[in-house]
Every structure is written in C-alpha cells, then in structure tokens.
C-alpha cells in the first residue's frame, strides 16, 4: 500500500501543558509507530483515538480526518473487517475529492486502497475500475518513472492475474519490475515485491522454472536488504517452499521450511503462533517423506504452542490435530487416530454445537475413517450429520457438497447398494458439469490441468470400478444407462484436456473491437466474482451482503451478450457443454465403429495396483456402448 502514512504538517499551539491530552499528530504518530513494529492491536487503538481527535480538532471535513479514516480503514482491512474498512475509505475518498480534486495524487492513494480492499473480497471488476483511474492520475501527475506509478502497474497486473486476463497482466507486471529496477535498483524491497508478483503469474501459467528463478531472486534481495530475520525474508522462504511442495520436490521444500522455522524462532520466539505454523509445515513435509518420527514430533510441538497461546477454541488447534490424526491413521495407529478425532469433535461440539461448520468438517474426517476401517453404518450415520450442516452452510453446487455426495456414492458402492450408489454418482456428475461450465472458460491451460487433476479426476476415477462391479451383478438392471454415463464422462474429460480458451482471448483482442473486449473483460470479472462467492459459506455471504443469484444472473446476461457478439466465444462455450455417445453414433457411417479405450486402476475401498482397460464400442445401430474389460491389458 503506497504512502499509507504520508507526512502532514500541522499548526500546533506553542503552549503545551504537562497534563494536556495528546494531539491528533501525536496519536497518529503513535499509531504509525505501533504499525511499523507490527503491533496491530495497539495501532488500531491509536488510530481510533486519532480519528475521534481529528473530528474534534479539525472537523469531519478536514484532510487530517480523511487521513485518519484512511489509516483506520487499512487496519480494519487487514483484520478482515471489510465493511468497516470500506465505510472509512469512502469517507476519506469523498473528503479528498472535494478538497483536493480528482487529479491529486492523495486522491489516487485512497482509490488504490479501496481497490486493494475490493480485490481481497474478490470484487475484481470494482477493483479494476479504481486501479485504472489510479494509474491514469499518477501517470499524468507523477509520470511513468515514479514509484507510485510502478505500484499502480503492479497492482493492476495482479488484478488482471486474478481475472485470468494473463495477456494484460504480464506487460504491467513487467513494466512495474522495469521501473523499479531503473529508479530504485534491484536491491530494493519494492523490486523484490515485483519479482514475487511476476512469479505468481508464471506459477499460474505452469512455468515453474521461471517462477522459481524470480522467487529465488526476491529471497536473495530481501536477505541482503532487509536481513534474514525480517518477516518478508521468512515469507520468501515459505513462498518458495510452497512452489517446491506443489511440484512434489519435498526435500527442497523441507530445507526452506526448516529455515523459516529457525528464523521465526529467532524473531518471534518458540511460543509464537507463526512458529507453530512453521512446525506444522515441517511435519507435513516429513510425513510426505515418510520420516515419521520427525513428523510426529513437530505436529505435537505445534499443538502444544497453539493450545497455550491461542487456546483450544482456535481453528489452528483443530487443523493441526486433524493433520496429526491423519498421520496416526497412515502410520497404522487406527485406535489413536479415532480417539483423537472423537476428542477434537467433542471439544468442538462443547464450544460451538453440532451445527457448526468445524464440527461438520471433523465429522467428515471421522466418516472417512469409519469408511476406511469397514464400519460402513457408522460412516453413513456420520455423513448424514455432515449433510445437515453442509446443506445450511453451502450451496448444492459447492465443491464441498459435491465431495460429500461422492463420499455417499463410494460408501454405497462398497456396501453393494448399487442403485443408491448410482443415484449419488449421477448427482455428483451433474454438479461437476456445472462447475466445469462456470470455471473452465476463465482458467489458463495450467490452471485447467490443475482443476482437472484435483477436482474432476478424484470423482470420476472410482466410477469406472463401480461400473465394472455393477456389470458383474447378474440381477441388476439399467446397465445400458451405466455404460452411457461412463462413455459420456470420458467424452467430457477428453474435451477438457484438449480444448483451449487462450485462442478465444487472442481472437477477441486481435480484432480490436473495444466493445467486445470490454464485454469480455466484464464477463470474466463477473464470472470470477461469482465463483469466489460460491466458494464462501452462506453465512459469510449473508454477512457481506452478497446475492449469489443476482451474480449468476448478471454473469449469464453478459455471457449471452458476448455469445451474440462473438461467434468464436459461442463456439468455445459449446465445447464445455456435455456431449453424449448418441452424438458420436449419429456421425458414424454404415460399417463404421467408434472405439474408446479407458485405462484405470481398480478401486475397492482404496486404490490398488491392478489395472483394467475398458474398451467401449459404439456402432451405428447399437443401443448402448458395448463394453469389453481387459485385466492388466490381457
């Protein structure tokens, strides 16, 4: 955030009395000092007093009052009190607009802060509009070789990155980095921040080598300029570790997480929650490396710290205990895992009740534990407990509800309740198709691959084993529908892997039609905003005043308008519609056949090494895809 605390000259009385209450300037300076020392609660209290004093000393229409609104708003935005922050920012904006005009750099500052607030909430279109205005003001008044203009480019690039408008994000992020290198040099924290932002761009594009180079550069600069004990350096270690962990490079991640832990110990001490988080991160990596003694040690150390410093009611306490329970289960200590899950769930119930989301999430883990230990009736009962909470907390098409329904499908499959399993799987696939339609048009190739691997494969894969089991039951009906679903799922996954949204972006931008470009960007912004809102629990949306149905309607209206204006866009949308084996059949000539080969590992409560090949044959007159299953390719 640029120049949050700009110096302001005040006309103070020359007569100061020993017992006189502190002036606005003194209160403001105390707030700044506490903020710089990362004492946010203390800073918040001083800024509250400064706001009250500014009103009393200068009036609500003064620039000092506007500054206090800005400072207090920033503290509220950091703590997640977004409505309070917005209210204060808007007051500051109104005062600065009236007293300074819309072309003043201080007016641009409040626009930038407001844009950052909206970006945190996923309101990217609002943020974009404000950042474009900010950049235009600073370009005109300060010039392109000014740190504020570089910051504007960086922030605008990050918003475009959030909107997956990568072609617009990249040049802005590069320009910010170039300007900072020129006027601040490479040995400046702001240049390191640019390296981080650009690394995020390359990560989103799946260009991990470029992202790695930039994160290493940022870390090196921060070490040299800020010192290895500075929070920004520790953050750099964590950022790089996350990149390595996402690639499965656990040994590299381990080294960085170790360093972050050591630095947190030096800077914050062993009793600080951030040190506990470092211990938890280390434990996860040790667990992944099968170094079980170290993993257990650091899980327990993290839990002890959180219990002492944050208490048993804190979400971090529950999270780390959950990780430890998974660790115990994987280690074969099933009784210990169950006892821990039950104890924590009981603790949550006492504090928050059975209707709390934390209770439901632990119940889901407990249900999975019962499923994995063949206690299916207990698993089903516990899943129904989760359902009652999830139905209140999440929308039907929320990914958590989809995974929950998939858990029911797998449970019924293992119980050989095939019709119930089939019904649950159908629900899952219907909602997955909806998620694909809503998400894939706004994702890059790398993000699409990630979405496919993490959210689609887990729910599609086990269905193949279910189909094979279902067909083996002589007295079951509807086998043609089961085979049709398997074939249609396969068609969908093929289209997702081979379709590209990049070409549609290029065509729209290359045509140079301003109206189409603006419409496309508004559509992307609205769709991203809708998807972010869908991910949030209903209670949070209600608190933030988000109307999901209205967002969906607005996104659909923009989609229709864009489809009418761009035939290329309409064609890409068609690619994400579900297709059926009957469509394939209609294109066949006499004596032709369409053959799809599906390879899958056998799933029977857990994944096995046994490989099957499902050969699905569609002929011009067939009533369903004819199956041939080959075990281990034989």
Radius of gyration: 28 Å
Largest sheet: 3 strands, antiparallel
User: Distance N terminus to C terminus?
Assistant: 63 Å
Average pLDDT rating: 86
Q: Structural class given helices, strands, pairing? A: mainly alpha
* Tally of DSSP β-strands: 3
> How many helices does DSSP assign?
28
User: What is the overall shape?
Assistant: globular
Kindly state the percentage of residues in helix. over 70%
**Which runs of at least 5 residues are low in confidence (pLDDT < 50)?**
1-19
Largest sheet, spatial ordering of strands: 1-2-3
- Give the DSSP E fraction (strand runs of 2 or more residues): under 5%
Give an overview in words.
- The structure is a single chain.
- By secondary structure, this protein is mainly α.
- It has a domain at 512-575.
- Helices cover 73% and strands 5% of the residues.
- The chain contains 28 helices and 3 strands.
- It has helices at residues 24-36, 40-57, 63-79, 82-100, 105-120, 124-141, 147-162, 166-183, 189-204, 208-225, 231-246, 250-267, 273-288, 292-309, 315-330, 334-352, 357-372, 376-393, 399-414, 418-439, 445-471, 479-498, 502-511, 514-535, 538-544, 548-565, 567-575, 581-586, and strands spanning 594-604, 606-618, 626-631.
- A hairpin with a 1-residue loop joins strand 1 and strand 2.
- Helix 7 (147-162) runs parallel beside helix 9 (189-204) and helix 13 packs parallel to helix 15.
- It is globular.
């Amino acid at each position: 955030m640029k120049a949050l605390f700009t110096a302001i000259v005040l006309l103070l009385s020359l007569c100061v009395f020993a017992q006189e209450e502190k002036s606005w300037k003194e209160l403001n300076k105390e707030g700044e000092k506490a903020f710089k020392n990362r004492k946010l609660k203390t800073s918040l209290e001083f800024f509250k007093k400064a706001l009250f004093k500014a009103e009393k000393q200068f009036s609500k229409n003064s620039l000092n009052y506007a500054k206090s609104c800005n400072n207090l708003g920033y503290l509220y935005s950091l703590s997640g009190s977004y409505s309070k922050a917005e209210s204060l920012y808007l007051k500051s904006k109104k005062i600065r607009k009236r007293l300074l005009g819309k072309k003043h750099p201080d007016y641009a500052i409040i626009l930038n802060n407001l844009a950052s607030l909206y970006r945190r909430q996923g309101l990217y279109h609002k943020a974009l509009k404000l950042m474009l205005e900010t950049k235009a003001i600073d370009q005109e008044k300060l010039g392109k070789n000014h740190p504020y203009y570089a910051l504007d480019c960086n922030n605008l690039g990050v918003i475009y990155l959030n909107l997956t408008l990568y072609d617009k994000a990249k040049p802005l992020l590069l320009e910010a980095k170039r300007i900072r290198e020129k006027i601040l040099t490479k040995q400046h924290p702001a240049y390191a921040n640019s390296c981080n932002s650009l690394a995020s761009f390359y990560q989103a594009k799946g260009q991990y080598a470029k992202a790695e180079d930039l994160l290493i550069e940022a870390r090196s600069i921060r070490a040299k300029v800020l010192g290895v004990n500075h929070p920004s350096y520790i953050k750099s270690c964590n950022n790089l570790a996350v990149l390595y962990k996402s690639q499965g490079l656990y040994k590299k991640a381990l080294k960085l997480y170790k360093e972050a832990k050591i630095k947190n110990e030096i800077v914050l001490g062993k009793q600080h929650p951030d040190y506990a988080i470092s211990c938890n991160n280390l434990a996860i990596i040790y667990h992944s490396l099968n170094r079980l003694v170290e993993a257990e040690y650091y899980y327990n150390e993290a839990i002890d710290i959180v219990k002492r410093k944050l208490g048993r009611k804190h979400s971090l306490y529950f999270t780390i205990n959950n990780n430890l329970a998974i660790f115990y289960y994987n280690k074969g200590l099933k009784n210990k895992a169950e006892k821990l899950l039950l104890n924590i769930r009981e603790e949550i119930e006492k504090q928050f009740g059975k209707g709390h989301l934390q209770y439901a999430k632990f119940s889901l883990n407990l249900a999975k534990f019962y499923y994995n230990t063949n206690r299916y009736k207990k698993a089903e009962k516990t899943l129904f407990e989760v359902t009652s909470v999830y139905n209140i907390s999440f929308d039907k098409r929320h990914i958590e509800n989809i995974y929950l329904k998939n858990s029911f499908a797998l449970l019924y499959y293992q119980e050989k309740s095939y019709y119930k399993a089939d019904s649950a799987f159908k629900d899952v696939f219907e909602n997955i198709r909806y998620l694909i339609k809503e998400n894939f048009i706004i994702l890059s190739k790398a993000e699409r691959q990630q979405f496919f691997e993490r959210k689609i494969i887990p729910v599609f894969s086990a269905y193949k084993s279910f189909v094979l089991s279902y067909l083996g039951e002589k007295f079951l009906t509807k086998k043609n529908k089961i085979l049709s679903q398997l074939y249609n799922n396969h068609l969908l996954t093929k289209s997702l892997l081979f379709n590209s949204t990049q070409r549609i972006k290029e065509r729209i931008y290359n045509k140079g039609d301003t109206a189409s470009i603006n419409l496309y960007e508004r559509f992307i912004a609205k769709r991203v905003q809708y998807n972010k809102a869908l991910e949030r629990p209903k209670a949070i949306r209600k608190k933030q005043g988000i109307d999901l149905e209205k967002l969906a309607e607005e996104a659909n209206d923009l989609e229709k308008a864009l489809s009418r204006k761009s035939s290329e866009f309409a064609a890409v949308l068609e690619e994400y519609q579900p297709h059926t084996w009957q469509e394939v059949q209609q294109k066949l000539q006499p004596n032709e056949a369409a053959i799809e080969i599906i390879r899958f590992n056998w799933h029977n409560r857990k994944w096995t090494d046994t490989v099957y090949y499902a050969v699905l044959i569609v002929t011009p007159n067939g009533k369903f895809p004819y199956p041939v299953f080959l075990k281990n390719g034989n």
